[in-house]
Amino acid sequence: MKVTLKGKPLELAGDQPKVGAKAPDFSLVNLNKQIIQLSDLSDKPVIISVVPNINTSVCQLQTKRFNQEAAQIDGVHFLTISNNTKEEQESWCAAEGVDMEMLHDTELKFGKLYGLYMPEVELLARAIFVIDKKMNIVYEEIVPEIATEPNYEEALAAVKALN
After folding, report:
1. Which of 47, 92, 123, 137 could potentially form a cystine with 52 if both were Cys, beta carbons 3.0 to 4.6 Å apart?
2. Which residue in 127, 85, 120 sits closest to 13, CA to CA?
3. Residues with catalytic function
4. Whole-number Cα distances in Å, 88 to 31, 55, 82, 85
5. Widest CA span of the chain, in angstroms?
6. What keywords sit in the KW lines (predicted)?
């Protein structure tokens, strides 16, 4: 699959999971050094917000928007994943007053498993996944132009329909 970054075509490595498929299970570490495994979150629907670099404007907008939404929706696990380091994520969260589940994928295990790794720029593609309690993907958006925001309304509507 190809996406663009400010108009420049980039290839995503691997296969991207599709709606209707089982969500590939993964484990990543959060800012509290806890291992978060997707399969352990089956008590509630999960929304995964993937951002290329937390220190860029569109990634900040996306993360702040989902942080605000997370505070207003009960019964949903919200995860933000980037391949920034733990320290970069901690610094950004502290500076912006954001308190949400941030997972760092510095080894790119999640990015490769979900087919979101862009080798040419060594970043993850911007994406949203909504996963139901049976671990099925019910919504996915891999943003075609990485420098633009995802469709928040569709992703939030998909997760709210599960409650």
Report:
1. 123
2. 120
3. 59
4. 10, 8, 10, 5
5. 40
6. Antioxidant, Disulfide bond, Oxidoreductase, Peroxidase, Redox-active center
